[in-house]
Amino acid sequence: MREGRKTDVLGKAISMLLMVLLVITNALGMLGETLQVKAAGTTLIVHYGGREDNNYGNWNLWIWEEGADGQKVDFCAEDDFGKIAVYQTTNTPEKIGFIVKKGDWEAKDVETDRYVETNGSTTEIWVTSAVEDFVYEAPEGYSSYDFEGQEQERLAVYNKKDALKLNVHYFREDGAYETSEVLGWKDENAPGSYPMVETDEFGAVYHIGLEGENAQGEFDLNLYVNGAADSTTARTVDLSKAKENVLDIYTVEGKSDVWYSREEVNYQPAILTADFGDGTTKQIDVFLSKAIDTKEETTVSKFKVTDETGKEYDIMERCTGNRYHHKNCTERRTFHGTYLYCVI
Fold first, then answer.
1. pLDDT by residue (tens digit) across 232-255?
2. Distance of alpha carbon 152 from alpha carbon 90, whole angstroms
3. CATH number of 149-264, picked from 2.60.40.1110, 3.30.420.180, 3.40.50.720, 1.10.10.10
4. 232: Cβ–Cβ under 8 A, 6 or more apart, which residues?
5. Please, are residues 278 and 330 in contact by the beta-carbon 8 Å criterion?
6. Can you give the pLDDT at residue 232?
7. Contact 130, 174 (CB under 8 A)
8. What is the per-residue pLDDT across 155-190, written as a single tens digit (0 to 9) for each?
9. Contact (CB, 8 A) for 316 and 295
10. Where in the sequence of the chain do the CATH 2.60.40.1110 domains occur?
11. Which residues pair with 31 in a beta bridge?
12. Is the pTM of this model over 0.85?
């Protein structure tokens, strides 16, 4: 096949996929991103000190996992050694790369890319400015960062008299709340985990206490079940909506929406991903956060898939359970927590 022909076919395929997304978005009300995220599985604590000028302003970390893109991580605490940064990842990588840099790559502390060998769920290192080697044990006269103590102190804020009490209400179609938790963070601070405290008629309830500057502006969070995020985009909470230092918000599995009244909640399914599932342009797999009945005429009529020429394509029937097989699909696959619909 000539390169021009390949480009033409690919262009039409991409156009059709975009139309699938747009049409189904109009039918169901929202579209999820395709990024897959999970709850924190590894924590890296980095101590950075020893600068001759004692000036740590605008210095930060660039951190990445092997085979993945990097991200900026700011220092969030300090001790006698220097500044402290906490990086949490949903994965369990054997190595994590890091660079100590100033601002937006104005300078590097050392030119070499360095890698940390992770050890269990939490790894802690001490980095001395202008020294390429780092250590895994606290230098003499210094101590480890009490991350667990900080976590307990954070959870205790909810019970303080003057704290803003954020009550997160979470609904799942399957009612699987036992292994759920909230991961929440303010601005670029290290995120914290908040366990489920009870269930009510709506679903699970989580308590988050905020005080001082943390109780102002916006607060970001996401829900996790069995270590996997249920939404590909974090939820953002407007803390100014609190009344008498209490704020109840409502969230639904698979959606990044936040509702401030139970009566306003939209339970309709969200699209998690849509892609060419069989490696060709013949089949598009659409994943929803909630199952829908494709045998129900009204529901099916909401799905209209067309390509750039106006040709329509049928949605295929969803099988029951977590294992699916569709006519003209090339293989049998298993998916947990999402529902697959093939479009050809």
1. 788 999 999 999 999 999 999 888
2. 21
3. 2.60.40.1110
4. 32, 33, 34, 35, 36, 37, 256, 272
5. yes
6. 73
7. no
8. 999 999 999 999 999 999 888 898 888 989 887 666
9. no
10. 42-145, 149-264
11. 271
12. no
